[in-house]
Amino acid sequence: MKLQRKNRLRATALGALAVSGALVLTACGSDDNSSGGASGSGEKSTAASDVKCDDAKGQILAAGSSAQKNAMDIWVKEFQAACAGVEINYQPIGSGGGITKFTQGQVAFAGSDSALKPEEVTASQKICADGGKGINLPMVGGPVAIGFKLDGVDELVLDAPTLAKIFDTKITKWNDKAIADLNPDAKLPDTAIQAFHRSDESGTTQNLNKYLSVAAPDDWKFDASSKSWEAKGGQAASGSAGVASAVKDINGAIGYFELSYAAASDMTTVKIDTGAGAPVEATSENASKAIAAAKVKGTGNDVALELDYATKAEGAYPIILVTYEIACDKGNKAETLPSVKAFLNYAISDEGQKVLTDAHYAPMPAEIAAKVREIVPTLS
């Protein structure tokens, strides 16, 4: 059963290439960021034929979203293989931590699973010289999977109100009537639910907050814009990897993290009852159907997106996120600007998107990718 599920995950990632509005999904990658087989600056390697190193050199510090950590691993490995003398050091400390480091001038760019708030844009103006400010450049997106471990249960359907009550510890047993009604054929045990959430500020948490606030407003009264966990009870773990690891090891556990963490652990994920004809599984293709209606709400060179968390479209998975790279539109540090531009140019390029496909990724929507490709070279 689990092997079949894993094979389905791989198949849907490849199938998503044909879906309009497909997204980059976070995936399992290597922690090895070392340069290998590097050619000279400005040359191209066979592993990363689309890398244009230009004047990239030295070390780049970046930090933020752990949701995109695995995507970064792949991009960094390919970029450093092509560009000698460049080191990209990305710290997956959470979206909130990354934005803080960015607005304090400690990193060249940040990764965040939510767009900058107005006060964060204001703060960025202090470190972006020449009248510049931080802008949102979407690079990675996909479903926030709800993973669980429950002995004897291989499939589980939940809806937004039930999820809200579970994560707010209003439902504490797996055989609760609300869960049983959604799973009439399952043999649900009288096992205590152990709900895990992020201990760090996280855009993943914020996107789950937004989903529950929209889809279960009577049961989720917490701040939809908060990156911090505000619900009562539950257990905390650091980063998506920490939450996934805890859920994998504990019977009765449930938590939220990007799909790649579930795929890497061969973990079963919850199907969401959205009110459509059938419950929806967390896959790249199903997330693409939900995100296809995203609208650009940013202005100028800012490409912040407005997502539809309340979708009831057939086959559309509603718990979704987009991860942005955040950089100054103007006033970037002269010593890091060439490397930042070269790296981001590669990440959003056709080749940069394609190298992720075999690791459960799919390309960003063509129209969004095209807009970002126009903006990155103008960073100054």
Automatic annotation (TrEMBL):
Keywords for the protein's UniProt record, in alphabetical order: Phosphate transport, Signal, Transport
Record's keyword annotation contains Hydrolase: no
Domain PBP: 56-351
Residues in the signal sequence: 1-27
InterPro entries, per database record: ABC_phos-bd_PstS, PBP_domain, Phosphate-bind_PstS
PROSITE patterns: PROKAR_LIPOPROTEIN
Any matching Pfam family: PBP_like_2
Keyword match Transport: yes
Similarity comment text for this entry: Belongs to the PstS family.
Name the UniProt record assigns to this protein: Phosphate-binding protein
